[in-house]
Amino acid sequence: MIYPSDFEEKIGFKKVKELVAENCLSPMGIENVDKIRFLTNVNEITLNISATKEFQNILNFEDTFPSDHYYDNTLCLEKIRIEGSFPEIHEVFDLKRSLETAKSVLNFFRTKEGNRYPVLSSLCKAVKIYPYVSESIERIIDRNGNIKENASSRLKEIRTEINAKRILASRRLQAILKQAQAEGIVDKDAEIPVRNGRGVIPVNIHDKRRIRGLIHDQSASGKTVFIEPEEVVGINNDIVELEYEERREIVRILTAFADNIRPYIDDLLDLNRFLGEIDFIRAKALFGNRFKSTMPSITDSPGLSWRKAIHPLLALAFEKIPGREVVPLDIKLDSKDRILLISGPNAGGKSVCLKTVGLLQYMLQCGFTIPVAEGSESGIFSKILIDIGDEQSIENDLSTYSYHLINMKNFLKHGDERTLILIDEFGTGTEPGLGGSIAEAILGEFNRKGLYGVITTHYTNLKHFASVTEGIVNGAMAFDSQFMQPLFQLYIGKPGSSFAFEIARKIGLPEEILAKASEKAGVKNISYDKSLREIARDKRYWENKRQNIRQHEKRLEKMIEQYERELSEIGTMRKEILSKAREEAKTLLSESNKMIENTIRQIRESQAEKEKTKQLRRNIEEFRGKIEKPADLPEAENLTKTDKLISQVKKLKIKKEKNKDGHIKPGDA
User: Fold this and answer.
1) pLDDT per residue as tens digits for the range 96-109
2) How many Å is the maximal CA-CA distance in the chain?
3) 297-521, CATH topology level
């Protein structure tokens, strides 16, 4: 259920449908846009959104997708269904190209490996394409959409006769024209024009009786008449009769074609609907890609948790304004905090937040992907009820406040624990004290019934009620009190100030008036509003601190990642050095053994000659010195560097953990 009847126009969905319809290639696609409806079954919603998301991926990552010749063949096929009927040639040509498009679409999905697009592929399973139908069309229609000359033997004979007659008529006319030019009846540079489908001779009005035949036309000046010579009248009459016969033969061919494909009409209509559905999903995907829309995690229970949500129509409007960008919205409604009460200055973005929630949730439940960040979650509501705008009714004798109260009455009547309500400027339109009291009582009943909602207000009593009531949470639109301008950021957890006096002061109201207003407002109200301003200021301060800490953490993470990468490289280098050292040690040991064995052998062979023995001993001492000399290896240096890196990484990790443990949150003292 959605309420009121003009819900789609108020929430902005009517404009969304117009934009999607502009993306459609066919009347069937546009018809599907018109048929969009609010869904409440989680499986149906998930299926629709999944199809749209898959098509977004096709548009983003595939080279091509068949996007030509999405013709609506409904009227043609329904005509063929009637016994004895026949389609026009252009209708058969449209059907031919539609079948080619459908075949290309089916081939696209059937040739994709790994079931890349499961939902869209499942749409193709029930689609039937009969080669017989395509072959029947190919036999009678050429690639330019004309009836083939050999569609039947009789048609070929007729067209051969027509061509022969036309050649004969042309030759006769040329001969008559040349003779008339020679006699001066016709200008030397005159050619044979066509009037009423027949070749004629342009003759001066005064010489018209010199050429016997039928007058078909006269020039605007009246000086020239166009005569069909009697020598070619008979030939042209024969051509006309043959053309009638040609048309009768074409009708016979088309009637036979209709008889042949009539058994397949229902399947061809299904194919037509399939192309319309593909066109519709493609149009939604184009819209989604325009705003980088995603598919949030969807659950059957009510609620939502969105990160960086944007209003697509606002984003579209800002595209035309240099330097303007939509400030993303982070919002959460769950079983603990079901109703969000947003307060803050006028033109600060309260209504935009409310409409963003309404439009995106409605889009989601109509099968659209929505512009929110990855990791967002969405529940399903059975009803969405809104009270937006000033709806005075002279005809029904309703004031603005009366209209709002009627809406509240309907909300209370129809609302339940699966209902989402959206109320802009709750309680306004009457005396603030009484209006605030009634609004508080209604808000309490909404909460008791378990409704979910987003409500905007300026009333202090509602802010206080939300702060002490379980199930309702305050939200504030940020405002830069230094530069006196809205920041369009929503902070959940604390109420916001209207900044009425600050805005009035900026506009230039006299200080004496502001002083009197302050007295009339009372110390209590002024103090409360001042406290809200201070909270907002402190919140921004700590939010900036948190942003700085996040940036610092990111730098730490990069440094740790760099050090760990270097550490890994050094570890690898160390292994290589040790491996190399071991190999060299083995080589030296082997050489030592060989040296000793060789020396012993030589001493024995020399029979212990003094000089020879001394020389051998010197050789051994030199070899020993070579072994005992410290190797010039960078091992020690690398090990020292490794120890230093390990120490730095440990310090950085400890520092990061401390930051996590002592993470500053908005509102911390």
Assistant:
1) 999 999 999 999 99
2) 152
3) Rossmann fold (3.40.50)
